[in-house]
Amino acid sequence: MSITDYERVPTVSTERNEALAEKLKRLWETEPGIAGFLSTVDHKEIGIRYIITAFAFLIAGGLEAAVMRWQLAWPGRHALTPEQYDQLFSTHGMTMIFLYAGPVLSGFSNYLWPLLLGARDMALPRLNALSYWIYLCAGIFLYAAFAFGFGPNDGWFNYVPLAARAYNAGPNIDFYALGMILLGISTTVGSINFVVTFLRMRAPGMSINRVPILIWGTLTASAANIFAIPAVSLAFFLLWMDRNVGTHFFDVPTGGSALLWQHLFWMFGHPWVYAIVLPAMGMVSDGLPVFTRRPLVGYTVVALATVATMVLGFGVWVHHMFATGLPSVSLSFFSAASIIIAVPSAVGVFAWIATIWTGKPVFTTAFMFFASFIVLFVIGGVSGFMTGSVPVDWQLTDTYFVVAHLHYVLIGINVFPVVGATYFWFPKFTGRMMDERLGRWNFWTMFIGFNIGFFPMHISGLLGMPRRVYTYADGMGWDWLNLITTIGSYVFAVGVLLFLINVWKSYRNGVVAGDNPWDAPTLEWATTSPPPPYNFVVIPTVASRHPLWEDRLQQHEGESSHVDAGPVLDHGREAIGTSSLDATPDIILRMPRDSYTPVILAVAATAFFAGLAFHAWWLAMLGALAVGIDIIVWLWPERVLGETREPAING
Amino acid sequence: MADRLPIETALPVGAIDTRATGWWAMIFVIFTEAALFAYLLFSYYYIAVQPHVPNTFPEGGLPDLKLAVPNTIILLLSSGAVAWAQLNIEKNDKRHLVWGLGIAAVLGMIFLAVQYFEWAAKPFALASSSYSSLYFVVTGFHMAHVVVGVIMLWALFVWSAMGYFNRIRYAHIHIGGLYWHFVDAVWIAVFFTFYITPYLGLRT
Amino acid sequence: MRFSKRISFLFCIATILHAASAQASAPLNYLTGSGDKADSVVPLTWGVTIISIAVILIISLLVAGAIWRRPGITAQPAGSKIAVDEETNGLSWIWIGVGISSLVLLFTVVWTMAVLAKVTSPSAKPALTIEVTGHQWWWQVRYLSDDPSQIFTTANEIHIPVGKPVLFKLVGADVIHSFWIPQLGGKTDTIPGQTNETWLEAHTPGIYRGQCTEYCGLQHAKMGLLLIAQTPQNFAAWRAHQLQSPARPLDGGQWAGLANFTNHCGSCHTVRGTDAGGSLGPDLSHLMQRHTLAAGVMANSPADLDRWIADPQGIKPGNLMQRPELSDRERASIVSYLKTLN
Questions:
Q1: In this model, does residue C80 exceed pLDDT 70?
Q2: Nearest-10 crossing angle of helices B68-90, B130-161
Q3: Contact assessment for residue C193 and residue A258, using Cβ atoms and an 8 Å cutoff
Q4: Which residues of B touch C194 (CB under 8 A)?
Q5: Given a cut of 60, is residue B143 above it in pLDDT?
Q6: Alpha-carbon distance A41 to A145, whole Å?
């Protein structure tokens, strides 16, 4: 067998072939035990870990919120000291926004992307493992600080000069800054991986007008991250320098600028808001049609609207800074942009409604989460639209109205789709169905609890309750509203608990699902549940957006998709590379074996940041050295990856 | 199964030219790095135009070009050496590939040495003012990239000397070259910002 | 069922909001207001709120209609194949929906720009310029004038004459705060290194509450302020009184109080005409004229004053006023002195 030719014509298989499946399993399988755990590069394994880790942080952030709501249930309570409250609300924000909302979507995308695209793995499997390990390390780093009482305490957007050494002498902000830079590395390498996977790993024939909307969502988010993350990493690095080596970036008396922080932070922050909702909107766009028995209405405009949202999203960061005394020309521009950005969102809303309206709904729990999401999306959207109007925003900003808005965005547009997506894809992940009966309870508890808990926040905001207050006086008209909010949020927490119980119960003894329990149209349902390590025995060939519905959709005349017949790549771990627009095969890619380099690199990088945090320069040096060596080992040209010269003839 | 399956011709195997996955990854690494430098330079210009910033911006008056201009030329030559190395391997000239990489790495190290003297000659320190912080951190960021690039060039040098690459298998050279050209291009932007704009009247 | 309930609930909101705010039971609400600024901004606030509620209602109805328009399938047997519809029609939903939305959005942009243009600067020349400095966690208030003898400083309470726009120069002393009198106008940050400007005008005399709204540290929650709008005559009288140094103590106890005050408090607080000339804390020259203590935390009564001096860290933990080392007698003398600062 020759594995070392420069080129070859891939063998084609046209029937189910057990021997081939067995061979591919041997090639792709991860070693069992701790060795395999640390070295695996399987996107499905990494995706599941991402999801579980993100949910662990969701629970942590939820408990923090529960304690805060206890404090705020009545006026004038002192269950928490101001310092405790400040660390809780800051850590809650950091956790939900950075450690839950982004990573959970990375988890789903990691698991689903290669399956949706008909690929054997992500383009850069080791980089994929690295992005998870760094995420885990950064999460532990930030939470270890919190456990010792050094959690962030100036809010998640951490304005200077309050976050400068002069006003915050403890190590809290140093840990936050370094942890965020570390996390930024994870997000960046993950994003690069998604973009390259999109451009190179789609199944033959899957031209860019045939990819599922989830792909568009994650792609757009990832492309944005590539440009946006450096702003926040830089801001935190400059702050760390100001705090630790005496530079003057944000120090006003010596010529620095306090507003520079806000610009850098929100140049990142606003695109990030879209990055943590667009993939979730993509999940709904792909899931809803399955349960309405028809293709999504307006695929092309929805895909374009996804991209347009992000492009506009880079031009609205100043709407977080309307009260900072900017010139009115600048206010007018950013105000108009912030209102107009609602147009592409409207495209999505009407596409989803039309999909339900013209379809035949199947009332599953997943459908209920997806359908209710539309209403929550609109509530979160219109409150955002209100804050886009500058004179109104001068009143709304920094009140509970904004708290309500951002929770409708993050819970309504992230948590609801994610829970719905779990009901939808759980059979694929585990091979078992989730319990529908418990699912109904789960949905109604979450939906009712959420609205009781968070809708009144709009009203407390309109009645002037400022955000980030550890307590409030009575007689302000907020007493009842806060009590209702606390009760509602606890009901919501029960709903989340029911979800977790359902996951556990169904994982243990749910009904066996089969390959395609929902009769869904996309490629992930063409393989077994759960999928084998190599995803597909043969590389699928795609001729439409709905490969598994082609027999029933008349418009697909001419060529049809193939999922059981196609190229066999079995000379080692191999995948097919295709051209970026029309997905014409142009290379056979050698995929890396399992490797320890990612986990070692993550630990070394964490050691570097820990060294900086504790001013243990030897540890930082050691960490940097280990990072350097690890990268050289990682990139060492390998013949098996087709990176070095090969003998002309091989046995 | 009457339909055509799309692959009937031979496909290259492994990492080949711009179809190598690593080449695409490097493109996006460069995008994110370019964004980082864009934000760094934004910080400089933003602070430079603040009305409350003292008139000693740039600190120490107009920057001295004595070392900076020749150093810029050295870095550009280094980029040229890498380009030459890339041309050589495409012609299967492995000896000149090694030479090209070695020359580029040495020129990169000379650039670092000159930068060291440039830093030492500055009449201000990192913590003197907002200008000094910006100057050292932005040029420091660039120097860190040069250090990474020089290490990378030496790695490529060693791998080339070990005979890893040939006319077809040279993706590493291509990818590394891309990074090195980027590091040099960024220097032009940094050089323009810190050494040229004060002469053009920004805040003087 | 669920949605009709939801809709009636939403319909109620506007009424509830209006009732709640009109009764002045929510002193920081901005759904009502007074003054030139509020006259343009309050209608816009209501306008976008009503548009938003209408959009929520319409979309909820459409979603509910889409779901229950025809009997759906309640359960799908795993693995079964259900018919799939063609990808036809439906697109008109997007064009019509987005078209209408765009018109509403455009209308809002135009309205926003009109209001913005109107509130950017006052219609008349400001009658008065007041410099407000945000400190952790109190407000310093300086009445500016071209005539140095007309300048004076007070804290946490701002008096203005009604019917005249007043210019505020906002300065950040330490961290960023945000100056906000919701009944009269929106927020403007006080930022170190820059002077922001805003203006306010009140139509009717009254006490308007304010609050810091940019998170500024431990006691951000307790950084209130009051704006007292007065008739021009009353304002002139108040101002004339403020310009005078407070009366000197009358009896020996009060003199002892002044001595103790100067000793223990004078390095942070100023009382004009005495040796107490500190500037870290609020100017106390006419303390008894104020309604509240410690930036709106408590009423200004002798008992509360005593409580505050005895335990500032218990009432407002983390604030910069340390618990002074005072005997009960010294504290009582200080209170009796402060009571004279009319």
A1: no
A2: 30
A3: yes
A4: 52
A5: yes
A6: 29
Report d(CA A312, CA A232) in Å as an integer.
19
Count of residues for chain C?
342
Q: What pairing do the DSSP bridges indicate for beta strands B11-12 and A585-590?
A: unpaired
pTM given for the model: 0.95
| Residue A624 in tokens | 């940097």
Nearest-10 crossing angle of helices C91-120, A365-388: 30
Per-residue pLDDT tens digits for A108-148: 999 999 999 999 999 999 999 999 999 999 999 999 999 99
CA–CA dist A449, A492 (Å, integer): 4
- The amino acid occupying position A95 is T
Q: Percentage of residues in chain A with pLDDT exceeding 70?
A: 98
A564 vs A386, higher pLDDT: A386
Tokens of B100: 């090209």
Q: What is the pLDDT at residue A645?
A: 81
From A411's Cα to the closest Cα of chain B, the distance in A is 29
* Chain A residues with CB-CB distance to B39 below 8 A: 230-231, 234, 264, 267
Question: Residue A41: which of A592, A648, A613, A604 has the closest Cα?
Answer: A592
The token duo for A479 is 């007493």
Which residues are A13's β-sheet partners? A566
Residue C278 burial by Cβ neighbours in a 10 Å radius (0-12, 13-18, 19+): middle
Look-up: residue for tokens 């005399």? C205
C-beta separation of C201 from C183 below 8 A = no
C168 SS3 class = strand
B40: which 2 tokens?
Answer: 């760094």
Instruction: In whole angstroms, give the CA distance from residue A286 to residue A358.
Output: 16
Q: Is B4 on the interface with C (CB under 8 A)?
A: no
User: How close is the nearest chain C Cα to the Cα of A551, in Å?
Assistant: 10
- Nearest by CB to residue C187, choosing from A364, A397, A517, is A397
Is residue A76 packed enough to be buried (19+ CB in 10 Å), middle (13-18) or exposed (0-12)? exposed
Task: Give the 3-state secondary structure percentages of chain B, helix then strand then coil, rounded to 5.
Answer: 70, 0, 30
Mean pLDDT for the stretch of residues C193-211 = 95
Average pLDDT in the C309-332 region?
91
Helix ranges (DSSP H) in A389-478: 390-396, 400-407, 416-430, 436-462
Q: Give the per-residue pLDDT at A642.
A: 87
Distance CA A633, CA A642 (A): 16
Nearest to A301 by CA among A258, A346, A335: A346
DSSP state of A592: P
pLDDT bracket for residue A560 (50, 70, 90): confident
Measure the CA–CA gap between C12 and A495, rounded to whole angstroms.
27
Q: What is the pLDDT of residues A468-500, one digit of tens each?
A: 999 999 999 999 999 999 999 999 999 999 999
CA distance A50 to C123: 58
Which residues of chain C make contact with B50, given a CB cutoff of 8 A? Answer: 193
Taking an 8 Å cut-off on Cβ atoms, the answer to whether A565 and B53 are in contact is: no
* Whole-angstrom distance, CA of residue A542 vs CA of residue A548: 10
Q: Which strand (E) or helix (H) includes residue A558?
A: none
CA-nearest residue to A580 within chain B is B19
> pLDDT tens across B79-95, in order?
999 999 999 999 999 99
For residue B54, the chain C residue with the least C-alpha distance is C193
Output the six-digit token pair for A208: 């860019």
Nearest by CB to B164, which of A8, A257, A645?
A645
Distance CA A278, CA A213 (A): 10
Q: What is the largest CA-CA distance in chain A?
A: 88
Q: How far is CA A417 from CA A282, A342, A368, in A?
A: 9, 20, 10
Dist CA C187 CA C119 (whole Å): 13
Q: What is the distance between the alpha carbons of residues C28 and C14, in angstroms, rounded to a whole number? A: 17
